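_Full entry_
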Amino acid sequence: MKTWKLALALLVSSFCVGLFLVFQIKPEPFRDALIFFPLDPTASFSEASSNIEFQKIEDEDEYILNWSVSSILNQQAYLRQDVSLLFEDGYLKDILSAWRENTDTLQLEKDVRSDDSGHYQVITFHHAEIHYPNDVIKSAQTLSVDELYVIDSPLRPLHSFTIPATDEDAESKRILDYILSQQQLYEWESLLKHYQLSKENYSLIALTDLAKYEHQPLPHLTEGETSRFLGGLWEGLYKHYVLGITRQDGAPLSPVGSTVPLILIPHSGDHFFILFRTADGEPVQLLQTIMSEDR
C-alpha cells in the first residue's frame, strides 16, 4: 500500500513539475501597447544589438537562419520591451517581440526557415518605461539593425555574407539590391498615386533605413523632434502593424507578407504618413502627428 502511495505521489509530483515547466517556457503574448513617454536623460542603453546569421542547411532547398536580439539598459526599468522585424526581399517575414517588468535586460532568439537566395534585413526598436514618484513616467529608446545576403546558386554551394568578400558575391549583392530597389520604387509610386500624395512635398524613408537617423536629425526635423518622432512612430507601428492590420472592412489581418512600411515626412507640418501594402495587395495608410515635447 505504501509503495502504491509513493508511486502515486511521485507521478503527481512529476506532472506538477512538468506542468510548471510548460507554463514557464510558454512564449509570452505580445503586450497590448507600446507607449512613448518623454525621454529620460539619465537612461541609456549600454548594449543594443540585432543579429541575423546563417545557421545550417536543412535540405537541398531549405536552410535555417538564427535571429537574435539583445539589449541592456543602464538601470532597472519598470518595463522593458523590444520589437524586432525581419524582412526578406522587402516583405515582412516574421516578428520577434517580448516585454518584461522590473528588469534592465532582454534577450530574444528564434530560428527561421527559408529557401532560395534572399536579402534579409532586421530592424529592432529597444524601449524602456521608467517610473518615478508622483506618477512621473519617462522613456528610453534606441534602434539596432542587421542584414544578411544568402546566395543559392547552381554554380556554387549555398552560402551567406553581410559584406561581400569576392567579386561574385559583390555581383550577387548588386543584383539583389537592384531588384529590391526597383520593387520598392514601383510600390512607392503606386501607393503615392493611390493616396494622391505628391512625393515632392515629402521626404521618403523606408522603415529599414531609419537607424541612419538615430544620431542625426531626420529631414526637416530637429534632433529633439527626431527622437519624439521615432518614439511616436514605433508606438503607432506596434498598435497598427505589429499587433495586426485592420482592413478597411474592419477585419484583422496579420502583417506578415506586407511590404516594408514607407514613411513620408513633410517638408513642413506636424504630421507624417506611413504607407504599405498587405500580403494580399491591399494598400494601407496610417497618419500620425509628431509629438510635442511635453507628451
User: Anything to note?
Assistant: Residues 167-194 form the longest helix (28 residues). Residues 1-27 have pLDDT under 50 and may be disordered.
